[in-house]
Amino acid sequence: MQYSGGIGSWATAMRVKAEHGTDNLVLLIADTKAEDPDLWRFVADSSALLGVDPVVVADGRSPWQVFADQRFVGNSRIAPCSVHLKQKPCRAWLDANADPANTILYVGIDWSEQRRVLAIEKGWAPWIVRFPMCDEPHLNKQQMLDWACAEGLRPPRLYEQGFSHNNCHGVCVRAGQRQWRHLLQVAPDRYLAAEAEEEKLRAQLGTVAILKERRQGVSYPLPLRELRRRAALPSQPA
Ligand code: SF4
User: Fold this and answer.
1) Cα–Cα 20 to 30 A to 114, which of 93, 120, 129, 236?
2) Do the domain assignments include residue 238?
């Protein structure tokens, strides 16, 4: 199954284990070279609980290196980092090790993300994909976190810090302004590092940015540096 270090993928693995055991269970995880070290702590703890050693695949680059190589900054709609650092290494491993005729791929999205099911199924063809957390009983994120605690696991710390996903240390190009503002508040060092990377790319590629904003019906790049400048302004009276 596609293991990510997220709580949904852990809950998925627990359901797969309950139904099929672990003899043929593989926890396949892609290293983006940008994860919170605590994600790897959780992967180690949770895979020990499941009784399965994870299989880690990696392209070797970070998201920023992918953007520089592609001459394209990822954004909420197009994320080449996900393609090159997650999908391609995982597919290469599957091609070499998993016959689609007798392999089922499990993905950890839940019932609140059902709209993604068709695209994921299409993307992973010819493997058959299943989504155990879309089945009943439906659990929300807090229930999955509580479940992990009840199993004696310490959940990934990114959730405690107010992030809804445990990926790329809270520095995700798919996130919207709200998450970037949150990152600036709780981890300004990581925000500033991302801002510096974005500025480097802007120096090479021109007026591009991860975020966009619309003004009078026109879409403009919104650099992290500008978002930070605005966040420092006194808030306007309502
Ligand atoms: S979590 Fe976000 S930044 Fe990281 S690889 Fe996926 S899309 Fe890219």
Assistant:
1) 93
2) no
Residues 49 and 106 reside in one and the same domain? yes
- Give pTM, 2 decimals: 0.94
Query: Whose structure tokens read 């060092």?
Result: 189
Q: What is the band of 234 on the pLDDT scale with cuts at 50, 70, 90?
A: confident
Mutate to test the pocket of ligand 1, among 69, 86, 109 (most ligand atoms within 8 A of CB): 86
Closest ligand 1 atom, residue 32 Cα: 5
The residue segments making up the domain with residue 59 are 7-158
User: Which of 9, 73, 173 is the pocket-test mutation for ligand 1 (most atoms within 8 Å of CB)?
Assistant: 173
Residue 157's pLDDT is 98
Q: Is residue 171 included in any domain, yes or no?
A: no
pLDDT at res. 151: 98
Statement: residue 172 has pLDDT above 60: yes
